[in-house]
Design a protein that fits this description.
Number of domains: 2
Number of helices: 6
Helix content: 55-70%
Structural class: mainly alpha
Distance between the termini: 67 Å
Strand content: under 5%
Shape: elongated
Order of helices and strands: HHHHHH
Length: 120
Amino acid sequence: MTRKEKKPRGAPKGNQNARKHGFYSKVLDEAEQLDLIAAEDITGIDNEIAILRVKIKAVLEQDPENIKLIMEATNTLARLLRTKYNLDKSQGKSVKEAILKVVSDLAVPLGISAGETLLK
């Protein structure tokens, strides 16, 4: 090899070692590792937004007093939506306020007082 030719660094393209021996291998079971492989082909954040919405609804129904988790989830949802639609921070703040209003509107019919706390 001449001085100008550099040998490529890292594993060859398509190498699967990271999946079997990588950073997450000890914390993911086999099914989760397969899900991770399948998820690599997904582009965009639409699935994450949908899952987060479902999880927020589940928390409101099952653990409505967990205000910290509800706030973190709604903040994350607002950031995902801001990213998806390339919104600036002021527009993102409006999205967050709209999400909190929806969460509040969902909580009240369920008899959950968390909705009022969220809007404060």
